[in-house]
Write a structure and sequence with these properties.
The chain is α+β, with helices and mostly antiparallel strands and 282 residues long. It is built from five helices and eight strands. Helix 2 packs antiparallel against helix 3 and helix 3 crosses helix 4. 16% of the residues are buried.
Length: 282
């Protein structure tokens, strides 16, 4: 075989440049298209519309709803009315109770006022009677003391036991004339006394000035036994010098004293309230 003879090759023939360029262009275009599509993002899904069937409101249903609402409103109105009636009834009951209590209070006050007025009228009547009695007694005793003093002066000008008895009688008469007067702490007359104020005023009628308080009066004079008392002696309760009460012995086992605010000035037996001691000033 000639060295220049053509031997077929087993390799594929080379493609022409133009065909290769065409393929490359097509491939590039496809890739570009894919790239642009990827950049644009996924495709938007179309909206899905779903139709829901609503129940049809009939006229009967509307009427029932309206009736129910009206019934509810009526119940509310009834409850409100009942509440108002209950409140009014409670208020009326309280008002009636208060009025009853006020009526009872006024009735009791009226009853007390009537009783007080009656007691006052009786006390005033009794006081007038006692004052009239005391005035009569005082006049009688004054006349008796005056006649006794006159007789003593005529028989013997010098002082005698008759003069002492006359002073005692004056003291006793004054003390008895104050029976029924009120007791007032610090009272010195003429119609209200405390114990020492009455004793001081009684002795002043005899021209004797006593100390004002019971403590001093219980040591003013000579201490005497309770078994040897004479009218006009000063009785005291408590210790001599610290006595808390005084009175005047009027004879017959009795004394006159301004006792307290409940009893006033009274005449009592020694056994009613036994004194501690006595002093004699006359």
């Amino acid at each position: 075989m000639s060295h220049t003879a053509h031997i077929p090759s087993h390799r594929k023939p080379r493609q022409r440049a133009s065909k290769s360029a065409l393929r490359a262009g097509v491939a590039g275009g496809v890739l570009s298209t894919i790239a642009v599509a990827g950049a644009a993002g996924p495709a938007q899904a179309e909206p899905v519309t779903q139709t829901i069937e609503m129940p049809t409101i009939t006229s009967d249903f509307s009427t029932a709803v309206a009736a129910s609402a009206q019934a509810t409103q009526q119940v509310a109105l009834d409850l409100e009315t009942q509440a108002d009636e209950d409140a009014a009834a409670e208020k009326a009951a309280k008002t009636a109770k208060k009025a009853h209590a006020e009526a009872v209070r006024k009735a009791e006050a009226k009853k007390k006022a009537e009783a007080a007025a009656k007691a006052k009228a009786e006390a005033e009547a009794e006081e007038r009677a006692e004052r009239a009695s005391r005035t009569s007694e005082r006049t009688t005793l004054s006349a008796s003391v005056g006649s006794s003093d006159s007789g003593s002066s005529a028989s013997a000008p010098a002082p005698s036991s008759s003069n002492v008895s006359g002073s005692a009688a004056s003291i006793v008469a004054f003390a008895k004339a104050q029976v029924g007067d009120a007791y007032v702490p610090g009272g010195t007359g003429p119609n209200s006394w405390d114990c020492s104020g009455l004793v001081q005023a009684a002795y002043r009628t005899a021209g004797i000035d006593l100390p004002r308080v019971s403590q001093s009066q219980s040591t003013f004079g000579t201490q005497v036994s309770l078994d040897n008392l004479q009218p006009g002696d000063i009785l005291y309760w408590g210790s001599a010098g610290s006595a808390y009460h005084v009175a005047i012995y009027v004879g017959g086992g009795e004394f006159v004293g301004a006792q307290n605010s409940n009893t006033g000035t009274v005449q009592r037996s020694l056994d009613y309230d036994r004194p501690t001691g006595a002093v004699r000033v006359l």
